[in-house]
Write a structure and sequence with these properties.
Rna Polymerase Sigma Factor, Chain: A, 9 helices, Arc Repressor Mutant, subunit A, mainly alpha
């Protein structure tokens, strides 16, 4: 279903059909967007369910003032950030090392089929400040252009380019021989 058809259904008040169209058209893309932030299949899958619930609840308020794609990705990005903040707080309260918890969960993830270099890359990305991580994930893993990222994050393209550059430099320092 096209974005225009989905928006037409939504603006016409047929929220169930619009939502079904959204789920059919965007679930996989949103999953991979979220997976770039959390890296673990189960976490991304759980987060996708939370995002879809948020979309369902917000759908009656969607008026088409933003592109559908932008609106969906903004909801998913905000939910991913909230999840990361909750996880960080949980790890601080449990006195666990965030890095060791992440490494053990990634190792146990049956859907992760990467090599050691990919593990190092994901670990380096997790250490980035929030804004740099967002830009890096969307640009490097999802191959979004700066205009799309700018719409989603409501930030200038110049600032995004600078954030991406700084993120790349930090990752190069973490993995000097490979990146």
């Amino acid at each position: 279903m096209s974005d225009e058809e989905i928006m037409s259904l939504c603006l016409g008040g047929d929220y169930e059909s619009a939502f079904n169209g959204l789920v059919h058209s965007y679930s996989e893309r949103l999953y991979w967007h979220l997976r770039g932030f959390v890296s673990i299949h189960e976490d991304a899958d759980d987060l996708l369910q939370e995002v879809l619930i948020k979309i369902w609840n917000a759908l009656p308020r969607f008026r088409g003032e933003a592109h559908l794609y932008t609106w969906l990705y903004r909801i998913a990005t905000n939910e991913a950030l909230n999840s990361l903040r909750r996880q960080k707080l949980k790890n601080m309260l449990s006195l666990s090392s965030d890095d060791s918890v992440f490494a053990s969960r990634l190792e146990a993830d049956p859907y992760f089929n990467g090599d050691e270099l990919q593990r190092q890359l994901l670990a380096a990305v997790r250490k980035l400040p929030e804004k740099q991580r967002l830009v890096f994930v969307m640009r490097y893993f999802e191959d979004m252009d700066y205009r799309q990222i700018s719409e989603i994050l409501n930030t200038s393209e110049g600032a995004l380019k600078a954030s991406y550059h700084h993120a790349c430099m930090k990752i190069r320092n973490e993995i000097p021989l490979h990146f």
